[in-house]
Amino acid sequence: MAETIRGKGVISGIAVGRVMLAGQNLDGYLAAYRPGDVAAEQKKAEAAIAAVTEDLLATIERLRKDGQTEQAAILEAHRMMVQDPMMADNIKHKIDTCGSAPQGILEAADEQAQLFEQMEDEYFAARAVDLRDVGKRIARHVLGVKEPELDAGQVILCGEEIEPSVVAGMPTEQIAGVILGSGSATSHVVIIAKARAIPTVLGIGDKISLINDGDEVIIDGSRGDIVIRPTEKERALYETKIEEQTKLAAHYAALKDLPAVTKDGVRIELTANIGTHMDVDNALTYGAEGVGLFRSEFVFMGSTTIPTEEDQFKAYRAAVEKCGGNICVIRTMDIGGDKPLPYLNIEPEENPFLGYRALRISLDRHDLFLPQIKAILRAGLYGKAAMMVPMVISVSEIQRVQKLVEQAKVELAHEGKEYADIQVGIMVETPAAAVVSPLLSAYVDFFSIGTNDLIQYTLAVDRGNAQIAHLYNPFNPAVLRLIQRTIQSARERGIWAGMCGEMASDPYAAVLLLGMGITELSMSAPSIPRVKEMIRSVTAARAKELLDHVMQMEHGVEIRAYMHKELGDTTTAVEV
Ligand code: PEP
Ligand code: MG
User: Fold this and answer.
1) What is the number of H-type helices and E-type strands within the chain?
2) d(CA 241, CA 320)
3) CB 455 within 8 A of CB 474
4) At 446, phi and psi to the nearest 5?
5) CB of 520 shorter than 6 A to ligand 1
6) 451 Cβ inside 6 Å of ligand 1
7) Do residues 434 and 485 lie in contact, with contact meaning Cβ atoms separated by under 8 Å?
8) What angle separates helix 309-322 from helix 366-379, to the nearest 10 degrees?
9) Which value, to the nearest 10 degrees, does the dihedral of the CA atoms of residues 313, 315, 320, 324 take?
């Protein structure tokens, strides 16, 4: 019987296909396994580690050749986990105790995974899945269990948790969709699915037991709906939607090289938000004109110690070069809040989003900040780099940043390293910065409005709290006023203003921002075509009219409804 369940749609799009249950359970194999003596078991584990390393290297190379750089990077991280001497020691120790290679391997991986899980941060907790994935991979090798194999056809992967390597190792065209019992938007499986625009629904909890291997399902990644064993009528309904989706994708592909320009000739730059330099290639396929936000903290989070100036330089230079003359805005590290970094040993805080984060750490820790500034200045030689600082609340912070930029230049000159003079701007993501934007504008080359934080701080609504998500409204009049003020201050000072918060990917918001005089919008790359289409369909004069009307309105919900009434439906491209 057909059944519809609802989870959280995290990557939109509709997919129909047969379910492949992923995330193999090895219990049966383990029960049947007969270990040899301890020395033999140790040898088997060593051999499995070597074989898995080789397998991974081959897959990484294939992915790189196919241009799947993000997936390659994730498997590269797995390879490092497999070859981590601490993991090897731990496995040895466990085998000494339990006498079984696969058991010891799984226990060692589990123990390390638990350490990650104890971290409150979602990003690090999600790394636990990678560790268990790595453990299973090595154990499968000892047990002689094949890696999950696929039929020729497309599948919808479904699992309580799915090992990132399963998704990374499969060709994109074989995965129609992903269903996860648990997971979060920052888990690695979701990161991979996002890069490939695979419709994904997560958080269905216990209801996952209603889905069997081989079941036909339809998933709607915008609404979060999963139709299990659909009826003919349901299938026909969704088939129409899929046809529309295919037409839309072709339509968007045709927009790739067209400029985001209004009917009356106002040009907006559409750029991408990235987490690693490897994301640039993918962003360019959606028509990104450079990078408006390179979240450099991912360079820090991908390392177990503070990355050196040289390591950072390599990552920034690669991104800047790939942007090919278009802007590449590198945000200095935004650690803290929901992104802690274990090796910085920051004390746990009652209220981390209002605590020791981002620029506050950078200004305290010159040992971190100066190498980063130097790396960015040096990367500037390879294209159009810009440096942006997060979480600013006052003029004095920018003055301190400026002094450090000067110091970095002096040090570089001393060291005989070349660098470029680059733009230095700030994120306007605190109400304080928006309010004093007329003062801040005197010290910077640009503003980029970070609405993800600006909304949460303005409305006192935690950006990650589902219970109050309805209050987190970008169209709230208080938010719109702060944004308008910021753009106005930039224009009066003759500097540019852009937006890199998620609000920039909302086509209705884009029209209002255009009306306010914004010149750059940065977003997850798959959202670019949809916003571009909206910009190309209006005039700047009409955008201004709509803005003037909206600024008289009192309720955020009504504002959105009004924009919908005036501009019609915005097509639903992949949203991330
Ligand atoms: C923002 O706050 O809008 C932003 C882009 O930064 P992050 O989401 O990384 O906090
Ligand atoms: Mg922010």
Assistant:
1) 23, 16
2) 39
3) yes
4) -165, 160
5) no
6) yes
7) yes
8) 30
9) 130
Smallest-distance ligand from the CA of 450: 1
pLDDT, one tens digit per residue, over 354-402 is 999 999 999 999 999 999 999 999 999 999 999 999 999 999 999 999 9
For position 362, what pLDDT does the model report? Answer: 97
C-alpha span between 428 and 481 (Å, rounded): 13
Give the separation between CA 551 and CA 545, rounded to whole angstroms.
Answer: 10
Per DSSP bridges, beta strands 496-499 and 446-449 are parallel
pTM assigned to the model = 0.72
Task: Judge whether 188 counts as a catalytic residue.
Answer: yes
Nearest atom in ligand 1 to 453's CA: 2
Give the C-alpha separation, 404 to 363, whole Å. 9
Residues 129 and 131: their CA atoms lie apart, in Å, by: 5
Q: Which of 389, 429, 483 to mutate to test the pocket of ligand 1 (most atoms within 8 A of CB)?
A: 429
pLDDT in tens, 163-207: 766 777 777 788 999 999 876 665 667 767 776 788 999 988 888
Q: Can you say whether residue 157 is alpha, beta or left, with left for phi > 0 and alpha for psi between -120 and 50 degrees?
A: beta
In 3D space, the residue among 290, 258, 287, 260 whose CA is nearest the CA of residue 274 turns out to be 290
**Residue-level pLDDT at 573:** 38
Separation CA 482–CA 487 (nearest Å): 9
Cβ-based neighbour number of residue 253 at 10 Å? 13
Q: Encode pLDDT of 542-576 as tens digits.
A: 999 999 999 999 999 999 999 999 999 875 433 33
Position 187 scores a pLDDT of 62
DSSP state of 306: P
Mean pLDDT of the chain: 89
Instruction: State the SS3 of 416-483.
Output: CCCCCCCEEEEEECCHHHHHCHHHHCCCCCEEEECHHHHHHHHHCCCCCCHHHHHHCCCCCHHHHHHH
Which segment of 220-229, 292-301, 508-517 scores lowest on mean pLDDT? 292-301
CB of 501 within 6 A of ligand 1: the answer is: yes
Ligand 1 contact, 500 CB (< 6 A): yes
329 confidence band (pLDDT: 50, 70, 90): very high
